[in-house]
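assembly run, all chains below
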Amino acid sequence: MLDLPERFSITTSIAYANNKPGLHTLYEVIGADALARWYRMCGVPTRFLTGTDEHSINIAQAALDEGRPTREFVDEKVALFKVAEAALGITPDRFIRTTDPDHVRVAQEMVRRAHANGDIYLGTYEGWYCPNEGFRNVTDVVETASGTICPNHPDVPLQWLTERNWFFRLSAYQERLERHFADHPDFVRPEHRRNEMLGFIRGGLEDFSISRERTPGDWGIPFPIREDGSSSEFADGTWDPAAGKIYVWYDALINYITGAGFPDDPAMFARWWPADLHVIGKDIARFHTIFWPAMLWSAGLEAPRKVWVHGWLLAQGERMSKSRGNFLDPIDFVAAFGSDGARYVALREAAFDRDSDVSWDAFTRRYNADLANDFGNFVNRTVSMAGRYLGGERPAPREAAESPLGTAWPAARDLFVAKLEACLLHEALAALWEFVGAGNRFVEVEQPWVIARAVKAGENGAAERLRAVLGDLVEACRLVALAVAPVMPGLAPRVMEQLGYAHEYAADGNGGPPLLDELRWGAHAGQVGMLTAPVPLFPRLEIEAALPGEIPATATGPA
RNA sequence: GGCUGGGUAGCUCAGUUGGCAGAGCAAGCGGCUCAUAAUCGCUAGGUCACAGGUUCGAGUCCUGUCCCAGCUACCA
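ok done. output:
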């Protein structure tokens, strides 16, 4: 069916820990978690890294404005992320924070390597600085009668700042980047994002600054090198403040190799790097597909194998964001749809390869149609009929070739897997739900209740036919619940229990039998088991009871 | 401004090399009774953004126009 990799190393971008998380931020994490779980269940050693980005000047300023220590401020925000991710069933192998001590060491090591390789040099960075947004490009500011202003914050006076910064020689990597894109056509996906990045590279690359002279509250990773090239570390282990801080973007990207074990654990690093997949949003594609490979090459390391660029969640055409206030609180979302339901509707309702308009209404309709009506009811009617007509002993499926569902299954499964591995998670789920539809239609065609009456009437062969039909239905329930387990990890154990099967996977998807073996029609045909009484999996939601069609404004303040 | 996507049913979208406009959801009608008012079937719903052109034939190819989104260098 497919060739599984020998290991799978996947990351998300790290979230900016300045506020509580929105669903639009965790959407990417849900998708990556589903992919990580897929590989874990397939028996592929998997490492899934996600976390938080904490060294930004804005965060330091926000903490300062609240009169609190920056560390306390970010600890609080990170705790909110962890609570929300736990509610969504997110299972990273490491939750990395850029304030983690090992990450601080790795970022400094990367600076030293770039310096040793002649890729960084001292220069001057100057430009308009908006206290709310940082340095603004000349094309982003507006000239007015009262002076130059930032269009987003017209009341805040812009400052012309000059900083002595270290610069990274990105210009030296233009040719290598072009060659890398040519040699690895799948490096950036989807295709149109790759084209954008390629266009940017061909337009000529400028060097970028990787240090800041000063930061609010002295926040950030100490730049490990002084202007004269000497180490900025004092004998007591503290750092010379005059050396400045590492610019937050340079620091943030490096989390991916910290999380892979660089450089303290070479064996671990060799095992997990290069990452197989970075899952990121379209707004940060350039940093991941252009700056980041160059940074790695400068340090003598490999670029990640693939970067998947997803789109945004939109509410009525507008990007969901904390600053706009049109975002969903993941806790509310889980409260309404359940952890599994929330994961499913998020990944099914939004396309993973482009922007998607979402609404509470659409999520509710999707939940009712796909989960309550189609699949939940399919399992319910199957378990109910098998229990009622066969007394609870689990009927075995027929040979695939003798069963319409058994015949249809391989194509549905293969399409599901192909879409999943292509990161088209919404299409993967759609492919699987085509098969759920086939299951429901099969019930109508066979009408087991009619066969059951024939059995009662003593009709010849009716009992055998009833067992066969119900066996096929039970098998269809098993296959769909297992296939969709990476997306709805809590569902599979509940379905398996009702079907009288063991579920041997751990909470994070590790440890069970290879999923592809389990996804064969009739994989457990010989096993005896008892069905339980039917228990509804996804209670139907009343649209009226749900929030109105608008995305509720739950913002607590500016981002 | 330049470059790249897109505009198809009320909503979300699919439409391969040009060959009778499709799916899901929502709506209406009917069937069934195992099931969570569910499910199955049927119906309705379209100036394929607009105007030209090529062609026996255009949602698809070409030209122009309008609209939306993205990219066009350091907030993260």
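The CA atoms of residues 138 and 234 of chain A lie 39 Å apart.

Chain A has 18 helices and 19 strands.

not gonna interpret more than that til we talk
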